[in-house]
Specification:
about 800 residues; alpha/beta; 8-stranded mixed β-sheet; 7-stranded parallel β-sheet; 27 helices; 27 strands; about 20% strand
């Protein structure tokens, strides 16, 4: 009965067999029964727990099952999105890794139902005992709480048991990070078995890469149950790095710098079960050989809490070695900053592979095989195995061969662009609302590179609009140097200007003498606090003489306590409307950095940039105004023309097809956009940036909320508007290739861009319409922190 239900749900054939160790054959039936049979091993389970009691008082639509720190890190972005959209969420913690999970939950400010099922003794007994302790309590939880959807992540024992318990209770299973495969049950053990089992009952499978998607299709999982999403670990990584560096991370970097003033950091992590004892001893010996052969290497080894890992590390390293720092596991908010400073990473972890590649780090994978070969394919990673000779020789080559280091230190994004959680949330909520997922699977992940034999699915996928010549990773990003300036840059990239920017703001100098006004609006921005900001004054052509103003604002003292650098860039050659969209890429920026481009006719409050960051973190470009595309591929009429019959205050973020006057996003999105350049540069840059990112990464376009009183969040400082002065001023026209009739090309360029990217507008039924709230021609003041007034168009 179990086999029939599971295999029918997964599209598997009951007779299908899989090879395991020693060449023997076992059916999936035997493997699943073996796993389920372990669930009854211990009679001390908390079978009497009442999850509806006052202690828990649980009612939730979505239950998220976690037990390890990587699970918490990778589901946290999804949980955040679900809560933001009003969904009730329960996080159930099986405590598979008690200390590390508790710390990670605290980092992401998540509350959980703590089952406290795993004691140290049970953990030492292995996955069978762990599964037995989890299963029956999870089953009781699901019977009493009855969520609509259960989310599991990855391939842990917790994920496998959670998916089976949900299946037994007729609850939809959503599997985040589905489809990873090595096709070897011993590498990794037992994770390869776990993730095969999870795929069978999962109705919503979120594959992080095209390879993972194809693996699921090959196992007869229907394409209607698979979404190419990218990996949520990139969301979490960029979110962490967008915040100020924690004091503990700064202290650790100072400690590392104190070991060797010109040292290069080698970050080592190891914890996998198949590496225990002899293999892990070899890995430690490889690290010791590396230290001997590379005199400026400084090794940082955070030791996993597993007792067997701790025993091996203590046995091999004793009280420590010269240039070797052994420490407790790094907190989830500290690890990304240490990872970013490393010259080389040695790991047997899965998530660290994804994070390192997304930061452009050289990476040695100390495993026999990896289910994340994308890092190897793009050139960042090498699979070394676990022999000390191979680990030492490959590490030394990377650290001493500049050409090899440069080759392995390029930034690629095979695991997504930091907005995977947005698509996953959309699909889950659509399923909950309609009883089925959205009809056309979309992608927030990496490029689909072929190998898919499902024509119908190809037509649905955004990749069907992609020129095969454009497929592949993005161009390498500039090296990001030390955030805290505490470590020297890797040898291949020394000599730079210091840490990269967290925020890049571009002010357009064109037809209006408004630069000084806009710079004064940037001065008090709350987003600048604790962040490194680079402001680019981008002058296009010879329309204004701003030399005196630009010089004044380049003085760092004028910015008070904010860390702001100002660069004046003047292109005497007209670059039209598109040149400024390249400007954020000319400066060194941090991974996950934000960019803004401002027209010269806008004003904004001192919390407006923070408001934009909130929208960007939700997975959309932030714009000042919004527009829709009509059924004739034109700008739909009546949606923010140059008139006053328009409501300029709104309580929630509003989704549009595209927008203008101000744009904000992530640097990674802008790189992706230019990897798929516009088919025309005559005009419609506003539509291009939205169309290309929607097609290639499922990034939407939204106008940040701007409520009016008596709304509790009403605050003019969160808002932006166009200047009334712009109405009466003749707009200067960008001249591209000698053509001064750019405006007349608006209609044709919209059609060209629309067709090039296969743009799909927001359905008319989902569009938010605005209505008149004051008489035409009436002006309303826009007050900025009491320092000056400006007549603001459309602001009520």
């Amino acid at each position: 009965s179990l086999l029939s239900k599971l295999l029918v749900a997964g599209g598997q054939r009951p007779q299908q067999e899989m090879r395991v160790r020693h060449g023997s054959q076992v059916s999936l039936l035997a493997l699943v029964i073996l796993a389920v049979g372990t669930f009854l091993v211990n009679s001390t389970l908390r079978l009497g727990t009442d999850f509806r009691s006052s202690k828990y008082a649980l009612t939730c639509s979505v239950a998220v099952i976690v037990g390890t720190r990587p699970e918490v890190i990778k589901v946290a972005p999804v949980v955040k999105r679900l809560i933001e959209r009003g969904t009730s969420v329960c996080i159930v913690n099986t405590n598979q890794q008690h200390v590390m999970v508790t710390s990670a939950l605290k980092r992401f400010q998540l509350d959980s139902v703590d089952m406290s099922l795993i004691s140290g003794n049970i953990y030492a007994e292995g996955p069978a005992a762990i599964a037995g302790h989890i299963m029956l309590s999870l089953n009781r939880f699901m019977q009493q709480v009855s969520p609509q959807v259960v989310i599991v992540q990855g391939d842990t024992t917790t994920a496998m048991v959670g998916s089976i318990a949900a299946f037994y209770n007729n609850i939809t299973v959503a599997h985040v990070e589905a489809g990873l495969r090595t096709y070897d049950f011993q590498n990794p053990f037992p994770e390869e078995f776990h993730r095969r089992v999870v795929a069978v009952p999962s109705l919503l499978n979120f594959a992080p890469t095209p390879r993972a998607r194809r693996a699921l299709l090959a196992e007869n999982i229907p394409s209607s149950r698979i979404w190419l999403s990218g990996n949520t670990v990139v969301d979490a990584l960029f979110d962490s790095l967008s915040k100020p560096i924690p004091a503990a991370a700064t202290a650790l970097l100072q400690r590392i710098a104190g070991v060797h003033p010109k040292g290069r950091l080698v970050l080592v992590t190891m914890h996998r079960r198949e590496s225990f004892e002899a293999h892990m001893e070899d890995m430690c010996d490889g690290v010791l050989d590396l230290l001997t052969q590379v005199p400026d290497a400084v090794v940082l080894l955070p030791v996993h809490t597993n007792p067997r890992v701790q025993a091996t590390v203590k046995h091999k390293f004793g009280e420590g070695q010269k240039r070797l720092i052994i420490c407790d596991p790094l907190e989830a908010d500290i690890f990304p900053f240490i990872l970013k400073e490393a010259t080389l990473i040695l790991t047997d972890s899965g998530g660290v592979q994804e994070e390192a590649v997304s930061l452009g780090k050289a990476l040695l994978v100390m495993r026999a095989a990896t289910e994340r070969p994308e890092g190897v394919e793009v050139g960042n990673a090498v699979v070394s195995g676990r022999s000390k000779e191979k680990i030492a020789s490959l590490s030394v080559k990377i650290l001493t061969d500049k050409a090899e280091f440069d080759r392995m230190s390029q930034t690629h994004y095979p695991y997504g662009y930091g907005n995977s959680s947005v698509l996953i949330t959309d699909v889950i909520l659509s399923h909950m609302k309609n009883g089925k997922p959205t009809s056309a699977p979309m992608s927030a992940g990496p490029h689909e590179g072929g190998g898919d034999k499902d024509p119908a699915e190809k037509q649905k996928s955004w990749s069907s609009h992609q020129d095969p010549a454009q497929r592949g990773p993005l161009h390498p990003a500039p090296h990001v140097q030390s955030h805290a300036s505490l470590l020297p840059a890797p040898a291949a990239s020394r000599g730079g200007q210091g840490g990269g920017a967290d925020l890049v703001v571009v002010l357009t100098v064109f037809g209006r003498a408004t630069l000084d006004l806009q710079m004064r609006m940037l001065q008090p921005q709350t987003a600048f606090k604790g962040r490194k900001t680079h402001v680019i004054i981008f002058q296009n052509g010879k329309h204004q003489n701003i030399d005196a103003n630009a010089t004044k604002w380049e003085e760092r003292g004028i910015w008070g306590g904010s860390d702001v650098t100002v660069t004046f860039t003047h292109s005497t050659l007209e670059t039209g409307y598109y040149g400024r969209f390249l400007a954020p890429l000319i400066v060194n920026s941090q991974p996950g950095a934000y960019w803004w481009i401002f027209d010269d006719d806008v004003i904004f409050g001192n919390r407006y940039l923070e408001n934009c960051i909130r929208v960007v973190d939700s997975g959309s470009i932030a714009v000042r105004n919004g527009r829709f595309v009509g059924n004739k591929r034109e700008v739909a009429p009546g949606m923010e023309a140059w008139h006053d019959n328009y409501q300029a205050t709104w309580d929630d973020d509003i989704a549009y097809d595209f927008g203008g006057h101000i744009w904000a996003g992530r640097i990674e999105w802008l790189k992706l956009a230019w990897q798929n350049p516009p088919p025309t540069v005559a005009q419609s840059e506003d539509f291009w940036i939205s169309a290309v990112l929607k097609a290639k990464a499922n990034v939407g376009t939204k106008k940040p909320r701007c409520p009016k009183p008596p709304h509790p969040q009403a605050d003019v400082e969160n808002c932006a508007c166009s200047m009334w002065a712009a109405v009466n001023q003749v707009r200067k026209k960008a001249i591209v290739g000698g053509d001064d009739k750019v405006d007349n090309q608006r209609g044709s360029t919209l059609v060209t861009i629309h067709d090039h990217y296969g743009f799909r507008p927001i359905p008319v039924s989902e569009r938010v319409l605005h209505h008149q709230v004051h008489p035409p021609g009436q002006k309303q003041p826009f007050q900025l922190k009491g320092t000056f007034h400006e007549q603001c168009m459309w602001f009520t």
